[in-house]
Amino acid sequence: MRIEIGDYGARARQVIREDPQVREAVTGATLAFDAKRRRSYDEIDSDAWRRWAEAVKSHALTHLDRYLAEAEARLIENGAVVHWAADAGEARQIVMELAAENGVRRVVKGKSMVTEEIDLNPALEGAGIEIFETDLGEYILQLLDEPPSHILGPAIHRTLEQVRELFAERLETPPDGNPDTLARAARKVLRDAFLSAEMGITGGNFLVAETGTVALIENEGNIRLTTSLPRIHVAIVGIEKLLPRMSDLAGFLQLTSRAATGQPIGCFVSLIQGPAARPGDDGPKEVHVVLVDNGRTDVLAHEHAWEALRCVRCGACLNVCPVYRQTGGHAYGWVYSGPIGSVLDPGLLGLREAMPLPFASSLCGACFDACPVRIPIPELLLEWRREAQEEGLTPWRERAALTTLAQMATRPGLYRLAGRIGSRLGGSALGRALPMLGDWARERALPKPSERSFRELWREGIE
Amino acid sequence: MIGRSGGARDRILRRVGAATAARERRPHPGALAGDGPDDVVAAFADRFRRSGGEVVAAGMGWRGGELLRWLRDQVPEVTAVATAPDLPGELRPDLPEVAAREAGAGVSVGWGGVAETGSLILPSTGGRAVQLLPPLHIVWISADRIFARLEHALLSLAADLPAAAGLHSGPSKSADIGRTVVTGVHGPGRCVAFVRGALRSPAATE
């Protein structure tokens, strides 16, 4: 996916002004997701579960070399083929070569953020391979030629009316088709694809080192089909997805589902160890696991940002975020949006490339409270802001304001003079005059400043 | 086998090693505490139903004949089935056998179940097409194979892992169109657990 983060401000404004139904659809969907998440957290001792999950992931990440080697060894024992890709280009290359060697003409895909990250679809299409996104939301977006806007509900920014119109045009469904009719039409197209594709491509929610298990959670069954029917299954997995043991997986399958959709577990979970070997198994003859770095080792080496690698891609932080709700994910300009995108993208892409995302937050802290692995997102946002300031990446107006403030704060005479001017200017005029508060003050009535300064009151003795 | 990696494998592992060496190693917290439900069979049935699954209390004596009667009664339009290769002959309904993609129902036998999540565990040796392609999936399961907690079930499964296993916790569903839930999107739209043995375990009824 092309990186267009630099235009965040302009894109956000454009969505809010020109496409108001996006805001409506995204707010409705995220509030519904979040209500289910809250109810589901209440059914368990969510504090204890989240602390446990944080500790398991932190353990795995601080022993990642050991667990990667262990997972690789188990997968090879199970008959799978393990590939390693340092960056997006290498990952694409591996899949392209596998497809070419096996004469693959048709691919079915399960929803996967990492395949968006490495831009896999355009590469395969360029080689004349037909690709079917099989998650219903992803399929809608493929028809619209749009990237996903939410980790879990990739098409939540599209309304029923829009899907109706799209399907009527492309799948010849009735113009007033209900969701059931529309889903049936998609199912028909995709069922044919499942039965004829030579290769299935998925991501992986978790990779268990102890058993070499790629675990995938979903509700539709499309991932079960993608990993079962084609002759070749390729799982593309970020190196941070490791879990030490099968017993850890049991907790993570449940907690991730609860955080994502409020279910005790997704309707379907696939546990994949390797290619079909025993009698009766009609599964793929080849299973390939591609372990992808693509910036993750940079994040791992960062003093603070490494904690973002605990992310299980549940989308809970997007659902609670008052900023994300206004625009949906497209404004953020890359694969990972919302609070987690704002702390992960600077690590994966470099801070310069990810500006101004660390500033696209009100720091309200709701994301941390929802996060199943307790990623300190607000703290990481502040850390990235600090680094941006240090590297001179912040907007000039903000830099100028902070420099002025620093000068005033160290010169009492200047401070007094500014205070007197401020109190004369009064509420809104003062707001508009200050470089950082202009936009904020335009929409609000500021309280009237006191006529006497704090220093004057102090001298007189505060009663 | 080790596939393509160029020098990527060693480079990545070196970088990971350097990053983790510089950081304090965190300990593993051990198992997640919890008891799971007391009455595992009732809890399984309750959870599975709440996710849209159906549960039939099949006595220990139920065989293929009882299943056939249920099919005739519930889904008379189903005239042919696909059955899992590891399904014992006595649990097979007496209907014509067809390929999974043409069958009105698929009949499998579950390796086990999980009470806390309401899940059926289906090993790939049972044939994946049977578990996924027909619009109706029927799974025979023994009440004494239902585990209280997912952790216990997965640890037991790990002792002899098949190439793949599926956890099915209700029918296929999606809310991707207009946030309205539709069932049977890709996988089976109906999933019925035929639980052999008492639905309520003796300990819980005392």
* Total helical segments of chain A: 24
Report the uncertain regions of chain A.
none
What Rg of chain A do the Cα atoms give? 25 Å
Looking at CATH, which topology of chain B would you report? Rossmann fold
Q: What's the CATH C level of the domain at 50-296 in chain A?
A: Alpha Beta
- What is the total tally of β strands of chain A? 10
The percent range for strand residues of chain B is: 15-25%
The assigned structural class of chain B equals alpha/beta
Question: How many β strands of chain B by DSSP?
Answer: 11
Count of folded domains of chain B: 1
Q: Note poorly predicted spans of chain B.
A: 202-206
Structural summary, described in words:
The complex is a heterodimer of chains A (463) and B (206). The model of chain A has no long low-confidence stretch (mean pLDDT 94). Among the domains of chain A are: 50-296, NagB/RpiA/CoA transferase-like (Rossmann fold), CATH 3.40.50; 396-460, no CATH class. Chain A has helices spanning 8-18, 20-42, 46-62, 64-77, 88-101, 113-117, 120-126, 136-144, 160-170, 179-196, 222-226, 246-261, 296-301, 316-320, 324-327, 338-349, 351-354, 366-370, 377-390, 396-409, 412-425, 427-433, 438-442, 454-460; strands at residues 81-85, 106-109, 130-133, 199-202, 206-208, 213-218, 232-238, 242-243, 268-272, 286-292. Chain A has 463 residues and is an alpha/beta fold. In chain A, 53% of the residues lie in helices and 10% in strands. Chain A is globular. In chain A, strand 5 and strand 6 (213-218) form a beta hairpin. Chain B has a single domain, classed as NagB/RpiA/CoA transferase-like (Rossmann fold, 3-Layer(aba) Sandwich), CATH 3.40.50. Chain B has helices spanning 8-21, 40-50, 64-74, 128-132, 150-158, 202-205; strands spanning 54-58, 81-83, 105-109, 112-114, 119-123, 136-142, 146-147, 164-168, 173-174, 182-183, 190-196. Chain B has a 5-stranded parallel β-sheet with strand order 1-11-6-3-2. A 4-stranded mixed β-sheet of chain B has the order 7-4-5-8. In chain B, strand 9 (173-174) and strand 10 form a beta hairpin. The radius of gyration of chain B is 21 Å and the shape is globular. The termini of chain B are far apart. Classes of the chains: A alpha/beta (463), B alpha/beta (206). Chains A and B meet through helix 2, helix 3, helix 4, strand 1 and helix 5 of A and helix 1, helix 4, helix 5, strand 8 and strand 9 of B. Strand 9 of chain A pairs antiparallel with strand 8 of chain B.
